[in-house]
Amino acid sequence: MTEVTLDDRGRLTLPKQLRERFGDRFHVVELHDGIKLVPVAEDPLAALRDEFDDVDKTAEELRASGREEALDEAGP
Q1: What is the DSSP secondary structure assignment for residue 74, as one 8-state letter?
Q2: Which residues, 6 or more positions from 1, have their beta carbon under 8 angstroms from its beta carbon?
Q3: How does pLDDT run across 48-62, given as a tens digit for each residue?
Q4: What value, to the nearest 5°, has the Cα angle with vertex 67 and ends 49 and 73?
Q5: CA angle at residue 3 from 11 to 21, to 5 degrees?
Q6: Beta-carbon contacts of residue 47 (< 8 Å; ≥ 6 apart)
Q7: What is residue 24's DSSP assignment?
Q8: CA atoms within 13 A on the CB side of 4
Q9: How many angstroms separate the CA atoms of 22 and 55, rounded?
Q10: Is pTM, for the whole model, over 0.70?
Q11: Is 22:30 a contact under the CB 8 Å cutoff?
């Protein structure tokens, strides 16, 4: 774990090794006990394509499957 300090203008400087690993754009997420920095991809569409690269179903097939599962969970 690395400790960092805000400067007098409220800026936070991340160590070089973290910037090289995660980039330089983040979403700041407020949690009940602190904050979390979530990296923002340089190309969000490319990141989504990579994330779902192994999915063989179409969007419509995924929607239909989701509907069926929701109806099954809801019961009669």
Answers
A1: H
A2: none
A3: 888 888 888 888 998
A4: 120
A5: 80
A6: 41
A7: S
A8: 11
A9: 25
A10: no
A11: no
Torsional sign, CA 65, 66, 70, 71: negative
Considering the four listed CATH numbers 3.40.50, 2.10.260, 3.90.700, 1.20.120, the one that applies to the domain covering 1-40 is: 2.10.260
Those residues whose C-beta lies under 8 Å from the C-beta of residue 76, and which sit 6 or more positions away, are: none
**Domain assignments of the chain as residue spans, ordered by start:** 1-40, 41-76
Please name the residue that has the structure tokens 């400790």.
3
Q: Which amino acid is at 28?
A: V
- The residue assigned the tokens 């969007």 is 59
2-46 confidence digits (pLDDT tens): 888 999 999 999 999 999 999 999 999 999 999 999 999 888 888
